[in-house]
Amino acid sequence: MPGSASMPPRSVPPGQMRAPMAPADPFAAAPAPVAAAQEVRLVIDQGAVDDAEVGRKGAGKVAVALSVAAVVGILVGWFVGSTWRERQLFDLALQDAKDVYGSVNTASNTVTKASKLLDQALKAAAPAPGKTVEVDFKAIEELRALEKPFPADTFSRKRYGAFAEPGTVDSLFLYYNNTNLLWAKIAVIAAKALSPNAREALTKAAKAAGELASTEYGCVPFKDGDAFRCGIVSVKPGEEGKVSVITRAATLEKTLFAGQAIADKPSDVVIMIDKGRSNEILGAATDKFQSYARDLMEAKTLADQTGQVQGQLIQQLGNIAKLSSLN
After folding, report:
1. Neighbours of 166 (CB within 10 A)
2. Statement to judge: residues 116 and 257 lie in one domain
3. DSSP per residue over 33-51, as a string?
4. Distance between CA 272 and CA 257 in Å, rounded?
5. Which of 1, 119, 162, 294 sits at a 20 to 30 Å CA gap from 11?
6. What pLDDT, on the 0 to 100 scale, is given for residue 55?
7. Torsion angle defined by CA atoms of residues 189, 313, 321 and 153, in that order, rounded to the nearest 10 degrees
């Protein structure tokens, strides 16, 4: 204030600090005001919410449509690929059928020829009135020269499951098995007839078989002391109730035994012998030929069965092979 003398500064006693001076701004000392809590209110526009929801639903529908399209594309691709593979397998199966059909068709000529040669050999070996029983060595040589129709790989790696008729596969393997058995039997026949020492022995046995087949045998009883015995003789038919007995010395007429008393003159009758039941004795000389003849008959039976299966198989495989011309 004017005229007033300035007051000298107050001295501070030693050991005490001076108190801070008050700030010039009277408001500076006031504490900073605390921000009042603000209330936030959300105003929802129902229309905007609806539009957003529609947008989300639309996006969802698009996603579903894209997913369905992708799945359909995958299915179509799989179907096309699967169809192509099935078509490829079908074509391969047809080719297999055609290959097997060609093999069977070619083999049929060989099987038919084998059957005819067996007929020829059997005809020569069959006994008949006024006919000589023989071994047809030429037919056996031709049989041995025939190659077995099917090598082991003919039916390997074939798609049998794709053949139209299941019975075709059964016929195929039956045919294959029969040809193997037939050619095995032909090998046995050839060994019995064509081995180095077989021809002469088989020729003699065939002659004995012819004689046995054309001759009837009987037994003429005779008395040896108190015992009765019987001698085997060849017999030819004679008049009713009579037969001619052929011995080394002569041909004698005898009466067929029919249960009459023969104690006084046993040698006046002849008892006929059943050749079938006596074959082990009467047919001893014919053993080799009989074995050969049995093999011939078994082989012929196999050939006939194989021929029947062959006809069915050619028809079945032919039907499958024809499908290639329709596709």
Report:
1. 10
2. no
3. PPPPPPPP-----HHHHHH
4. 8
5. 1
6. 52
7. -40
Phi, psi of 272 (to 5 degrees): -70, 145
For 301, the enclosing helix (H) or strand (E) is: helix 287-322
- Give the chain's domain count: 2
Which of 146, 150, 144 lies closest to 174, judged by CA?
Answer: 150
The C-alpha atoms of residue 118 and residue 298 are separated, in whole angstroms, by 10
Structure tokens at 20: 């801070």
Number of H helices, E strands in the chain: 6, 5
Tokens of 302: 């196999």
* Domain identity same for 95 and 223: no
**CB 325 within 8 Å of CB 204:** no
- pLDDT tens sequence across 231-289: 888 888 877 778 888 877 678 888 888 888 888 888 889 989 898 888 888 888 899 99
Are 126 and 166 found together in one domain? yes
Q: Could you say which DSSP state residue 217 is in?
A: E
What is the residue-averaged pLDDT of the chain? 74
> Which residue segment(s) compose the domain that 236 sits in?
211-278
For residues 93 and 44, give the distance between their C-alpha atoms in angstroms, rounded to a whole number.
72
Q: Report how far apart, in Å, the C-alpha atoms of 63 and of each of 37, 50, 67, 180, 315 are.
A: 45, 20, 6, 67, 58
Q: What is the 3-state secondary structure (H, E, C) of 47-63?
A: HHHHHHHHHHHHHHHHH
In sequence order, which residues have a C-beta less than 8 Å from that of residue 229 and are 6 or more positions away? 221, 222, 223
